Automatic annotation (TrEMBL):
InterPro entries from the UniProt entry: HDAC_I/II (IPR003084), HDACs (IPR000286), His_deacetylse_dom (IPR023801), His_deacetylse_dom_sf (IPR037138), Ureohydrolase_dom_sf (IPR023696)
The organism's taxonomic lineage, starting at the top: Eukaryota, Metamonada, Carpediemonas-like organisms, Aduncisulcus
The organism of origin for this protein: Aduncisulcus paluster
Enzyme superclass (EC): hydrolase
Record keyword Nucleus present: yes
Enzyme Commission number(s) from the entry: 3.5.1.98
Coiled-coil segments on the chain, per record: none
Catalytic activity: N(6)-acetyl-L-lysyl-[histone] + H2O = L-lysyl-[histone] + acetate
Pfam family, one: Hist_deacetyl
SUPFAM superfamilies reported for this sequence: Arginase/deacetylase (SSF52768)
Protein name: Histone deacetylase
């Protein structure tokens, strides 16, 4: 074989990986003391480039989503509101009550540039889905997206517009069945709710459940309704889960989802708040565990959209999503963090991996095995995929379910037993600012 033919074979075997990034994204600011810090995207991108990963992927600056794009899922009046709201209206005491209707509060404040922030995140996820649908890419990455809590007309949990639902709707134009996987520590309630009655989208969320942990949904017996019965899958964990136990659940669940659901494309939300030492989370995963989930999904060879999500210890978010970018473009990265503009964030050891803490693992092998078996039994019952599906290109608005009403009243913030540890993390974060 000539050198040229070798090159062609090499490029054919290597999946085309497209990475979406907007240099303005890191400049948005939710407000003082708010744990969601879009600045983390600047850290991620800087680390990706300093590792030289940009040479192994194609970088795209996204086109912002239009109002029309966003109202494929969201209510017209909600998008109009997000577009017109300003930090000044948010500050006015008379407006505050009115804003509550759309879920606006101190957790989801109106900040400067909010609409552009949403349009960028959604534009990137929709653009990425369109590339996958037209086979212009095999893997797309958008760490500016992953806002899984946003509802049709309501902001929730730091999320305003649900780029994930919009991306899935785009994929459904070309693919018969889409699998959504969510490894953020929080339940992916907005995506589950949107497709709760659909058998063309399976939503699978691994999350902390119990102790009134936000958002409080994602119980094991929430499995979908009507045509969608069995197509919502929830894996509840409790505090302290480590790599080995997590993967021991993740892998068999994925194997059985592939076997019984047979997805034609996958969307994966990679919230980094499931890592050890996250400022809001209480799992104990390292990059080996979190990254192995991504590798396992990459190895399915299915068209794949990888998204961001939560993640509140900024230096670890950058470590995690950089490592996962390397996994997706199949390029090994060194354990030593290369010098970059934000090098001081990685002090004192300047290494890539993160260590598990000595926190107690409250999950037991017996419980987790039972949970895995329950899910396998649920999957066995979903029936033969392909039977009775709407034809491709049919009116997909029908697949978005509207039946669920607004959830329970918000619970008071829990008093956390790890409060002291969290205070320490918070102090570290403040020092990072
Ligand atoms: F710790 C905080 C400090 C300031 C403001 C908010 C918080 C905070 C921590 N956890 N807020 C929460 C969660 N909300 C509640 C209750 C509702 N409140 C009245 C109390 O516990 C919200 C957590 C949102 C998590 C978002 C996400 O990580 O899942 C995400 N994924 O994609 C983007 C964000
Ligand atoms: Ca989750």
């Amino acid at each position: 074989m000539s050198a040229d033919t070798n090159r062609e074979v090499f490029f054919e075997l290597m999946p085309k990986v497209n990475y979406f990034y907007s240099p303005d994204f890191g400049g948005y600011y939710y407000g003082a003391g708010h744990p969601m810090r879009p600045f983390r995207m600047s850290l991620v991108h800087e680390l990706v480039v300093s590792y030289g990963l940009h040479r192994h992927l194609n970088i795209y600056e996204p086109r912002p989503a239009s109002v029309r794009d966003m109202t494929a899922f969201h209510a017209d009046e909600y998008i109009k509101f997000i577009r017109e709201a300003t930090p000044e209206t948010y500050q006015s005491p008379t407006c505050k009550d009115h804003l509550r209707r759309f879920g606006i509060n101190d957790e989801c404040p109106i900040f400067s540039g909010l609409y552009d922030f949403c349009a960028t995140a959604c534009g990137a996820s929709i653009g990425a889905a369109a590339q996958l649908a037209s086979k212009d890419a095999e893997i797309c990455i958008n760490f500016m997206g992953g806002y899984h809590h946003a509802k049709i007309s309501e902001a929730s949990g730091f999320c305003y517009c649900n780029d994930i639902v919009l991306a899935i709707l785009e994929l459904l134009k070309a693919y018969e069945r889409v699998l959504y996987i969510d490894i953020d520590i929080h339940h992916g309630d907005g995506v589950e709710e949107a497709f709760y009655t659909s058998d063309r989208v399976m939503t699978l969320s691994f999350h902390k459940y119990g102790d009134q942990f936000f958002p409080g949904t994602g119980a094991r017996d929430d499995i979908g309704r009507g045509d969608g019965r069995g197509f919502a899958v929830n894996f509840p964990f409790t505090d302290g889960v480590r790599d080995d136990m997590y993967l021991g659940c993740f892998k068999p669940v994925i194997d059985n989802v592939l076997k019984y659901f047979k997805p034609s494309a996958i969307v994966m939300q990679c919230g980094a708040d499931s890592l050890a030492n996250d400022r809001l989370g209480s799992f104990n995963l390292t990059l080996n565990g979190h990254g192995e989930c991504v590798r396992y999904i990459r190895d399915t060879g299915l068209p794949l959209l990888v998204l961001g999500g939560g993640g509140y210890t900024l230096r670890n978010v950058a470590r995690c999503w950089t490592y996962e970018t390397a996994v997706l473009c199949r390029h090994a990265v060194s354990e030593e963090i290369p010098f970059n503009r934000h090098y001081e964030y990685y002090s004192p050891h300047y290494l890539l991996n993160i260590l598990p803490t000595n926190m107690l693992d409250r999950n037991t092998a017996v419980e987790l095995t039972k949970e895995t078996q329950r899910i396998v039994d649920q999957l066995k019952r979903i029936g033969c995929p392909g039977a009775g599906y709407e034809s491709i290109g049919a009116d997909i608005s029908k697949t978005v379910s509207l039946w669920r009403l607004k959830g329970e009243e918000e619970e008071d913030e829990k008093v956390d037993e790890d409060q002291e540890t969290r205070k320490l993390h918070r102090k570290e974060e403040e020092e990072e600012e």
